[in-house]
Amino acid sequence: MRGLLVVLILCIGCAPGFDGVRQVITNGNMLVIGAVRTVSDVDSYYKQQILHDMERLCKAKPEPAKCVMEEGEKRFTDYKMKRDVAVKAIKDTSIALKAAADILPLVEAGSKNPKDLNGWISKATAALPTLSQAVSELGLLPGGK
Amino acid sequence: MEALIIGLIGDLAPLAIQAITASKDTHDDIVKKFNEKVIEAYAQANGLSAALDASDEKFHEELRNLAERMAEPTKP
Residue A37 has what pLDDT? Predict the structure, then answer.
């Protein structure tokens, strides 16, 4: 029984793991799709929030129009810096996952080096925590969702 | 290493899901669904920048409109 278990573990360890790679890509893509929707939602919500805040904060100022333009642009620039990080992480992840998905059938057919596939999968798995972190930080913006 | 561990876990996941849901999907069905998901995610990620650029332009316009509205003297 113990011998069977060892053989089973060794077999799993030796398997090329195409289904596993496919699962990583599928799960990664689900995260990318979710991140795109989150960023879109946060974006429209946060822009509305800036407009709302400017109307309230600048009402009593001596130059309300100037206040709206200056403060509004400043808030937007701060927000956009965080948004750019999230968008870059989404794109990096999707490029790595797409490349892995394109190479996968070639590796399965034996016409491509598995190292290329492993390289893209490593890039995708390395990009995923950055993606989660960036999207999470975007959602935690003051006044954000 | 992470990829290997996730890959190994992922290897067992489809079997477990198939066993639990008694899925009748063939290998071709799974590959087809997989490809659709890849294309969808990639298209969404690439469309995001364009959508955000258009939204930014609209935001700047709304900000200018608000500034103009607030510059107008209040009617008695």
Answer: 93
ipTM: 0.76
Query: How many angstroms separate the CA of residue A21 from the nearest CA in chain B?
Result: 5
Query: Measured between CB atoms, does A82 come within 8 Å of chain B?
Result: no
The answer to whether position A12 is within a domain reads: no
Give the residue numbers spanning the domain of A86: 18-139
- Closest partner residue to B45 (CB to CB) among A23, A36, A66 is A36
Residue A134 Cα, gap to closest chain B Cα (Å): 15
Q: How many domains does chain A have?
A: 1
Beta-carbon-side half-sphere exposure of residue B54 (alpha carbons within 13 Å): 5
Contact between A94 and B63 using a beta-carbon 8 Å cutoff: no
The closest of A75, A92, A112 to B60, measured between CA atoms, is A75
pLDDT of residue A76: 96
Neighbours of B59 (CB within 10 A): 21
The residue ranking higher by pLDDT, B1 or A91, is: A91
Asked if residues A100 and A25 have their Cβ atoms less than 8 Å apart, the reply is: yes
User: What is the reported pTM?
Assistant: 0.74
Check CB contact of A83 with chain B, cutoff 8 Å: yes
> Does A3 score more than 50 pLDDT?
no
Inside any domain, residue A54 = yes
Asked if the Cβ–Cβ distance from B11 to A20 is below 8 Å, we say yes
